[in-house]
Structures are given as C-alpha cells and as structure tokens.
Amino acid sequence: MTQYPIIMSQTGFTHKDNLTYPFEERGLQFGDGVYEVIRIYNGQYDLFDEHVNRLFQSAEAIKLELPFTNEELKTLLIELLEKNDMRADGTVYLQATRGSAPRNHLFPADAKTNVYAYINDLPRNEEHLEHGVSTITKPDVRWSYCYIKSLNLLPNVLAKQEARQQGCYEAIFHIDGEVTECTSSNVYLVHAGKIYTFPATKRILHGCVRRRVENYADELGIPFVEDGFTVEEITTADEMFLTSTTSEIIPITKVDQTIVADGKPGPITRKLQERFSAQIQTYRKKDPQFIQS
Ligand code: PDD
Fold first, then answer.
1. Which residues fall within 8 angstroms of residue 9, CB to CB, at 6 or more apart?
2. pTM score > 0.85 for this model?
3. Nearest protein Cα to ligand 1, atom 3
4. What atom of ligand 1 comes closest to residue 51's alpha carbon?
5. Domain, as residue range, for 202
6. Is the N or the C terminus of the chain less surrounded, counting Cβ atoms within 10 Å?
7. Are residues 268 and 133 in the same domain?
8. Positive or negative CA dihedral for 47, 52, 53, 55?
9. Helix, strand, or coil here: 212?
10. Is residue 286 included in any domain, yes or no?
11. What is the CATH number of the domain that holds 47?
12. Would you give per-residue pLDDT tens digits along the chain (293 residues)?
C-alpha cells in the first residue's frame, strides 16, 4: 500500500516524518477526537460534502472546535491531493483531537485542536465485491452515541479481530438480538423485495454509503425500510450486504454458521452494486482532482 508523503496538519502541509506529537495528547490518552475516511477514485473525492459535513457534526457533538470552516477544509483536502499528485484510487484519513495538554479529564483551557490528514492508495476489492464475504455476530457493547465518528473504537477493534481470527471479514453487532451495524460498516437484509436496516438513530453511524444506497433504492423502486431486523431473522433472508466507504457494497453470504439464502450474492445487491460502479465510472472519465461529490 502506498502512503503519500505530504500530510495536512493544523500548522500547514508538511512531510509526514515531520509530524511529532507530545505524548500528552488528548486523542492518544482519552480518544478525545473525531475522524473521517473519504474515498478517492481516480484522484477525486467521492461523497465529499457528506463526509466533510459529518466531520463537523461529530465535532459539534463532542464540543470540539475545528480550526477551519467547512469550505476551508474542502480547499485544504483538495490541495492535499494536488501536493501529492494523487491520481489513483485511495482514501484520506482525517482526525481532529482536543489537542496537547497535561493529562486531565477536563477540557484543557488553552489547548489547540490537533488535526492531520493523509492519503493512502486503496484499490477496489474485486474479489469481495464479486463473491461476497462471511461474517460473525457479536453483542453491541459500544456506547449509545455511535452516530458520532469518534476515535473510541476499542469494541470495534476487538470484534473485527475476532471475526478475522474466525476467517471472516466483519462482525455484525446486535443489541439483545436486534442487529445494529458492523464494526466499520452498515448492514442490510433483503426479504421479499424490501431492504431492511437499523434506523438512523444515535445507535449507529449514519453511513454516507448507507444514504447513497437509500437513494439508489428509491430510484429503483425498492422499499428501504428503516425497521431493523434480528439475528434470528437472518435465516429467512433472501440477501444480505454491508456498506462503507472502503468496502462499497459487499454481499454477505454467511453469518456465523448460517448460509444466507443460497450462499450467492442476490439480485437486489447486484443492482445496487451496478449503480455504485456507474458512479465510479464518472470519475474514471474525468481528470484527477476534478472534484465531484
Ligand atoms: N467506517 N458504521 C461504522 C461503525 C463505521 O465505522 C463506518 C465507516 C460505517 C460506514 O460509514 P460510511 O458509509 O460513511 O463509510 C458504518 C470507516 C470507513 C472506517 O472506520 O474505516
């Protein structure tokens, strides 16, 4: 994986080796910060406004002041692509924390928000998109404000690691049997021609790709039901899939020991994937750094 050398920080653009943090840093010691992952196709940001808007919403929810306006941040992120001459498929990771200060739970009086953003290459995972993935289920032991994209990801990290140890791609979280989302993606069940997924409450991250899927479903005349489903109901599923910025739309073919329907990606998942691929084609036809959200 290529990591590009120039990063953006609160003090400007610099080589990544120049970024040093004191060990008393709020993100490191308290997970006191928020982040975003934005996908890049052919050197252009996808769902750009949506991700930047969500960063500001997350920051506001934890009372964190960002050192730029929405428009200023977008300009900086575009510059980041240009300075790295980024023309490939990849991601930008951006995080903002409550700064560097002597360790104390209380907000520091004079600390400045620390920000950095850097880009990596990330090709599309054709294998997963085509054949689907296996998953496990785990109790959702996270806090109740999962709509905030905060740095506190320990339950997600532990559950995803367990999935990996069992040869699976993702862990599906549930609260008393009711499925919420996965460790780093949203999850859906298709039954009798309708798409079911957990409602966009505070218990899940309101995925940018989830919103896109909702729009595609509307266009295709497929009911998008924000009603959720249970682990038990997975045995009755016609199809299942998950979505995220890095995963796109991946079919789920197995959950724990249950094979989903006939174990092959289903027709509704395929239709949504086709729409997604068509969107990506629009980036392939344009010059890098021509931004479209
Ligand atoms: N994950 N749910 C959780 C818990 C997530 O962390 C993510 C994103 C999603 C999907 O959101 P979106 O469609 O906006 O990417 C749902 C990112 C990619 C990550 O942490 O790497």
1. 19, 114, 115, 116, 117
2. yes
3. 184
4. 14
5. 126-280
6. N
7. yes
8. positive
9. helix
10. no
11. 3.30.470.10
12. 788 999 999 889 999 999 888 899 999 999 999 999 999 999 999 999 999 999 999 999 999 999 999 999 999 999 999 999 999 999 999 999 999 999 999 999 988 999 999 999 999 999 999 999 999 999 999 999 999 999 999 999 999 999 999 999 999 999 999 999 999 999 999 999 999 999 999 999 999 999 999 999 999 999 999 999 999 999 999 999 999 999 999 999 999 999 999 999 999 999 999 999 999 999 998 877 655 44
